[in-house]
Amino acid sequence: MDATLPASALARRSKEGPTPLFGAYGIVKRFGSFTANDGVDLEIRAGEIHALLGENGAGKSTLMKILYGLLEPTEGVVTHKGDIVQLPNPEAARRLGIGMVFQHFSLCENLTVAENIALVMPKDLSGRALADRIARLGIDYGLHLDPDRPVWSLSAGERQRIEIVRCLLQDPSLVILDEPTSVLTPGEAEVLFTVLERLREEGRALLYISHRLDEVRRLCVRATILRGGKVVGACNPREETARSLAAMMVGSAVREVTPREGGAVGRERLRLDRLSLPAPDLHATALHDVSLSVAGGEILGIAGIAGNGQAELFAALSGESRAPEPDSVRLDGKPVGALGINARRRLGAGFVPEERNGHAAAPLMSLSENALLSRYPTASLTRFGLIRLGAARDLAKRVIEAFDVRKAGPDPAAGTLSGGNLQKFVVGREIQAEPGVLVINQPTWGVDAAAAAHIRQAVIDLAARGTAILVISQDLDELFEIAGSIAVLHDGTLSPAVPAGETSREAIGLLMGGSSDHAPPVADVAHPREPMPSPAHAH
Amino acid sequence: MRLDLVPRTRRSPVLDILSSALAFVAAVLIGGIAVAALGVSPTAAFVTYFVTPLSEVWSLQEIALKAAPLALIATGLAFCYRANLWNIGAEGQFVVGGLAGGWVGVATQGAEGFTLWILPAMLIVGTLAGIAFAMIPAILKVRLGVSEILTSLMLVYVAQLLLDYMVRGPLRDPAGYNFPQSVGFDAAARLPYLMDGETLHAGVLVAFVAVVLATVVLARTLFGFEVRVVGASPRAARFAGFSDARLTLAVFAISGGAAGLAGISEVAGKIGQLQPEISPGYGFTAIIVAFLGRLSPPGILIAALVIALTTIGGEGAQIDLRLPLDLTRAFQGLLLGLVLGADVFARYHVTLVPGGPSSRTVP
């Protein structure tokens, strides 16, 4: 094992400061002809929360996976306290004290908290001993978990705690967090920040990956910014504005979303009348008496934490689930509750589901086939049952051009596009049809800042042309940016819509948490309620 | 040393073919070792298996006659399997198609006058019977959520026993000395031979047309698109407004109809009467053929020919070299395993990353 750094890495080491806890020097990772990381240097010191910023596709995930032993770099070295180390697998990374909290939880819904944790622990640690350690961590860090609750009954915040506890049980010196607040309420995020500060004070290093620049500015004093696989800057986020950080990530000033000025609101185009739907399966949410109304030119935002009935509401609107009473869903006054998705499309509605890969688009199929997917009922793409391949390609091309979709090759498989580009494609595919009613679930989920701005602007412009738009989103900033009025979905019940100008993030945040009477069942007397979002939360 | 697998962004047909060819070569090499271990010269075995059957007119016809039902059934199954529905009962649908179509042949035996309608009627009845028999597992699946894998498989035995009963009972040739077989069909109830004095019959053309038709349907029609989307991304298919239930019925009808047509083609072609055994397991072998051909109709045609070739070659090897017929079965299984394994090369960039395992430890 080499104890000394090669000259190339030495030259890249920063001259001042103590030896970093972990260093990555000259990291290059190629996938075929594509270079995901191109000479990346990163130094992480003990006792700091280091932010890693970048758009989707900037190479953050690749770098993270290299540090966690999931990928091996094509070139470059990783050091631990100045010594070069090899990380052939996550096991090796864990032995070096590297832990990771993934963006997408890998939990078994039907197992209990303790069982889920035991799955990844050494075999000799189980049963009572493990439950005790979970309880002790809970007391030490405020990560309260009931070891015997099944995971399906937990909120996203509680699920994330399982991931964090799993990680902390291995006493890591470096914790990598990938977009940790993306599924949390403002209140849950506050709890997380307290835990992270605590970990930092204990002298652990944290690598914090997030799109939310406010959080980064609040938590971190050092940030490394990636763009196109290269480090384009390092800064103290507290000395920057969210806007200047975003500009560094994108490489140019972020396009500002122009809000619509006043604008005439037309007649009612979409209406739900006391829509109730039973939960389709054990882990789904039933809808109770949901009523709403969207007029032409209006954007109604539905806020809420994931899993409170958003998917079920979307399915009821799109026709993927039929309503028990036909007139509980109306399009332009017509009862459509009993109609399928294509009949509703023919009445002028368009739909963008939350999940890009596998729901809005078939990832293994080409973009032109994906244009066909939702547009064949209305865009005359078939003749006598035969697909008009040329027409489908033309349609895809028009969407690609209008929405600046970046892709490799003339008609690539949808799954090969980056998240932001595929989202632009699936949103653009529906907007290009000039629908009278558009329903979008999580329009910019996991999408980079530039693409998100593009999509939001397109939605606002569509409303200006008279379309009634319903946006379901977990991102409050987004809703306040584009929606005229906002309602909150909690546990399958929709609050009355209020004009966005007459409410606040805090008021909406309270409703998202279920106000006061909708607390999740508390299994343990010692299990405290989470604090509500503090009014001091920077905004 | 380690293998890196990087997914390819697009599947290339050239690589698909190359990887299959590679798998075939590997299977032949491994087969050669097995043959040598049995004390037979691998070269002689290779000639008997792969060269002799291709060098004689009668064996070429035999290959085509064996490949035709395999290709026809497998093409129908490809619709099911593409849509992630598992019809394992093509053998039963084949038998029922042969039985029902053959019954028309038995009933019209000795008919005088205008008899041109008999053969088309047999083919239609056989196809419809195959469809009807496939509807049992399809409807059970759609209505009650019963696993189509189990029901379609179990119905194979029902079909076989039904045929057995019919040829021993109601359809037995009264003048047949109690042999369990029906009367021989009239010429009007037989598929015509393509060449005088040879064995090749029109059933081969039926299979070929079906393969061409299926290629067009899968690639160019909205229905083919529906089949592909339902299999690849079921939620996206629902988003596209495609109905699971309707598609389940449709693909079972296609695969059942193809198997039924293959069954009556075999009965009205090669056999010429009903008997207790009308299939040497075509319905099951066709499952292998469908996957060997990667569920694409042209690939299935090639796979059916390869399987037919090894079967005919295996018969030759049994006679000439005293190699067991089980060796042929083992070879076909080996070939399927290798072709599916070689898919890795078509789906991923495979690179060998140098560096000994010793350097991969952690301090």
TrEMBL record, chain A:
- PROSITE patterns in UniProt: ABC_TRANSPORTER_1, ABC_TRANSPORTER_2
**Domain called ABC transporter: residue spans:** 22-253, 270-516
Pfam families assigned? ABC_tran (PF00005)
Give the start-end ranges of region Disordered. Answer: 519-539
Q: Which SUPFAM superfamilies match?
A: P-loop containing nucleoside triphosphate hydrolases
Provide this UniProt record's keywords sorted from A to Z: ATP-binding, Nucleotide-binding
What InterPro entries is this protein classified in?
AAA+_ATPase, ABC_carbohydrate_import_ATPase, ABC_transporter-like_ATP-bd, ABC_transporter-like_CS, P-loop_NTPase
A molecular function (GO) held by this record is: ATP binding
Family recorded in the similarity comment: Belongs to the ABC transporter superfamily.
Query: Could you tell me what this protein is called?
Result: Xylose import ATP-binding protein XylG
Q: Which organism is it from?
A: Methylobacterium thuringiense
Gene label: xylG
Automatic annotation (TrEMBL), chain B:
Protein name per UniProt: Sugar ABC transporter permease
- What taxonomic lineage is listed for the species of origin? Bacteria, Pseudomonadati, Pseudomonadota, Alphaproteobacteria, Hyphomicrobiales
Which CDD domains does this entry report, sorted A to Z?
TM_PBP1_transp_TpRbsC_like
The record ties this protein, via InterPro entries, to: ABC_transp_permease (IPR001851)
Instruction: Tell me what topology the record assigns in the membrane.
Output: Multi-pass membrane protein
Transmembrane portions of the chain: 21-51, 63-81, 93-111, 117-140, 149-167, 200-223, 244-264, 284-309
Q: Where in or outside the cell is it found?
A: Cell membrane
Q: Which UniProt keywords apply?
A: Cell membrane, Membrane, Transmembrane, Transmembrane helix
Task: Say which species the protein is native to.
Answer: Methylobacterium thuringiense
